[in-house]
Amino acid sequence: MHCALFDDHRCRSCQWLEKPYSQQLSEKQSLLEQLLAAHPVAAWLPAVTSAPEAFRNKAKMVVSGSVERPVFGAVPRDGEPVDLTACPLYPAHFAEVFSVLKPFIARAGLTPYNIQRRRGELKYLLLTESSQGGMMLRFVLRSHDKLAQLRAALPWLQQQLPQLTVISANIQPVPMAILEGEEEVPLTESQSLAENFNGVPLWIRPQSFFQTNPHVAATLYATARNWVRELAVTSMWDLFCGVGGFGLHCATPEMQLTGIEISAEAIACARRSADMLGLKKVDFAALDSTAFATARDAVPELVLVNPPRRGIGVELCNYLSQMAPDYILYSSCNPDTMAQDIARLPDYQVSKVQLFDMFPHTAHFEVLTLLVRA
Fold it and tell me: For binding [4Fe-4S] cluster, which residues are annotated in this chain's numbering (predicted)?
């Protein structure tokens, strides 16, 4: 992938860009094998690759510059704002959306926020696209002061970009580089973006997490479904479940499934999908995953965990070791903490491992690991 911004040293986010893609994959696989060297792996499956460019479905843009000439991209601490609207990680048509949003900023009177001066209103633009064609746009604002002007200008924007089916404003009053605040103000009647992976309907709401590489994510979910179906289990927990992608893929009409996620927004999406699929034995709840699990006196046959980068931690590992479900399916975005957690589960053998290259040109990747009780 060629990137003029990288060549000009204006953006170095893709730190591995100068490495051939085959070398990137080889180094990631080697790192994963080193991390799991203390645990015999019965089967290493081939890595799932990504398109090298135009794979992202999400753009997170710092807004800087002036209301007449806004800049969408990044603001280095010691440099000039960098326009990232032509970033080759985004689909080409994202640039067309950004080109409409720039004059809209002036129409709505949304002065870009200046961190040093602590003035202005518009901090970030967050754009997400569904493979079904719709888009979600979020304006991250410092306060409510410009909401009326924003609402008044929206009809023009919606006429120019009818694919924007979900629009909202997030209020982030803290004068720090924090992406979003707790309050979300809906600006369209619909606040759920429809997605579909492998025939499973999914919903994305403004404050719910969703993967940024849809092709690889769809393969990850399908792989988990295949592995679970091979085990023929009838009961399962999906912990840290997000919008329910893993559990909804794995569930069958006969399976008793419980999905747990701290975000109420994500749980609302998961429940909607379960209803659409007609799953009657599925329950989703907005709770802390560790607190939910460790308060139970029994476990299902399979526990699927998809934790944040910190991993599942000592408490949950100790609980799973004690309760001993037949299988643990571990999806991780941080192989270091996954390896630490596996070391805390000495009664489990590593049945199979597969790397999913969700983030080309960086050191990051996802991994799916099946643990079987010895």
Answer: 3, 11, 14, 87
| Residue type present at position 258 | T
pLDDT tens, residue order, the chain (374 aa) = 999 999 988 899 999 999 999 999 999 999 999 999 999 999 999 999 999 999 999 999 999 999 999 999 998 877 789 999 999 999 999 999 999 999 999 999 999 998 888 899 999 999 999 999 999 999 999 999 999 999 999 999 999 999 999 999 999 999 887 899 999 999 999 999 999 999 999 999 999 889 999 999 999 999 999 999 999 999 999 999 999 999 999 999 999 999 999 999 999 999 999 999 999 999 999 999 999 999 999 999 999 999 999 999 999 999 999 999 999 999 999 999 999 999 999 999 999 999 999 999 999 999 999 999 99
3 is in an annotated binding site: yes
C-alpha span between 327 and 347 (Å, rounded): 11
Q: How many residues does the chain have?
A: 374
Q: What are phi and psi of 158, to 5 degrees?
A: -65, -30
Residue 94 annotated as binding site: no
Radius of gyration of the chain (CA): 22
Question: Does residue 317 have a known ligand-binding role?
Answer: no
User: Catalytic residue among 241, 269, 317, 333, which?
Assistant: 333
Q: Extract the runs of DSSP E, i.e. beta strands, from the chain.
A: 41-48, 58-65, 70-74, 82-83, 122-129, 135-141, 164-171, 183-186, 193-197, 200-204, 235-239, 256-261, 282-286, 302-305, 327-332, 348-356, 366-373
* CA 354 to chain CA mean position, Å: 19
Q: Does 14 belong to an annotated binding site?
A: yes
Q: Is 317 a catalytic residue?
A: no
Answer yes or no: is 306 a known binding residue. yes
